[in-house]
Amino acid sequence: MKKRIVFSVSNDLSYDQRMQRHLICLTEAGYDTILVGRELPSSIPLKPMPFEQFRLKCWLNKGKLFYIEFQIRLLLFLLFKPADCFVAIDLDTLLPNFITTKIRGSKLVHDAHEYFVEVPELSNRKISQFFWDTIGNACIAQCNLQYTVAEELAQVLSSKYQAAFKTVRNVPPLLMDQSTFKTSNEVPVVLYQGALNQGRGLEQLILAMHQLPVVLWIVGEGDLSQDLRNLVKQEGLAQQIKFWGFVEPHSLREITLKADIAYNLLEPKGLSYQFSLANKFFDYMHAGIPQLCADFITYQTINQTHKVALLLDCNTDSIVTAIQQLLSNKQLYAELKANCVKASKVYNLEIESEKLLRYYQNLWN
């Protein structure tokens, strides 16, 4: 009989590439998988997937009351969804899963996408930090399996929560046709994909456009969506910068493949950013696009072996200098591009999925 695994996230399901990849992998391996998230006012209809999908609709969508409401709704959903294993994605879904597994006697897994209590949004909210940390301290060590996105973060979380975190990187599958790495833009395209949140260096990137003969594509939405659009209008850069909004994963890859230079800088705001290993880092790599990247330990480790990026600090002058270097130094650009192709053969879904399957198989061995 198939083992049933229920995964919980607190976000919309349509744009979560990591979860889609993981559930497809496990479904193809013979597991009965379910993904539950939440429905937002802006949510689009769910696309058919080889696994079940559910979205919980909340009256509230932000603030402390939202998290209380979501915890209750998720708990009620899970209690009436029998399964062999429940997987909590990040701390904001852990408590309902923990309670459910205690009642049902099922396996419990924790997948930490980030250093949750150290995200910039919680940096000045000590009560909220204490609340989530308390849940982590009470529940994580009791999970049957814990894993996260990077080796360095796994070491930090293992020490903090007294648990042996493993690693499953969020990487795309290998592109079969590498001719798609070629671009032919009349004006070079700089691409940012991801959440438009504080600490991502987006204001600095926008201001850098004044000094660069490029166009900028910004793909995604977030807390700063309107502020960034206002900044572009204020700076008179509307003809140079395009906001794509939310884009589904299959369309996102098509857009990424058309870019010339990619952007993945972060301000050193909190340990979450400093130990992050962003999905976009590997998406850019697999598209064969040299990128500007945060000079943090996770990226340093990979870049020492596979130089696919220029590592720099998050300020406008550094951004301008780095992009000018990539535009003018054709040899450097070609080297980074070639290294992306080589590195993609080391960091890919085909390899990471073997680890993922092994971890879940060991839950019942």
Overview of the structural elements:
This protein has 365 residues and is α/β, with parallel strands linked by helices. It folds into two domains: 4-171 and 349-363, 3-Layer(aba) Sandwich (Rossmann fold), CATH 3.40.50.2000; 178-344, Rossmann fold, CATH 3.40.50. The protein has helices spanning 17-28, 63-79, 94-104, 126-139, 151-161, 202-208, 225-234, 249-256, 270-274, 279-286, 297-305, 316-328, 330-344, 349-363, and strands spanning 4-8, 32-39, 52-57, 85-89, 107-112, 145-148, 166-167, 189-193, 215-219, 241-245, 261-264, 291-294, 309-312. It has a seven-stranded parallel beta sheet, sandwiched between helices. Strand 5, helix 4 (126-139) and strand 6 (145-148) form a beta-alpha-beta unit. Helix 1 crosses helix 14, helix 2 (63-79) packs parallel to helix 3 (94-104) and helix 6 (202-208) crosses helix 12. The longest helix is centred in the first third of the chain and has 17 residues, at 63-79. The protein is globular. The mean pLDDT is 93.
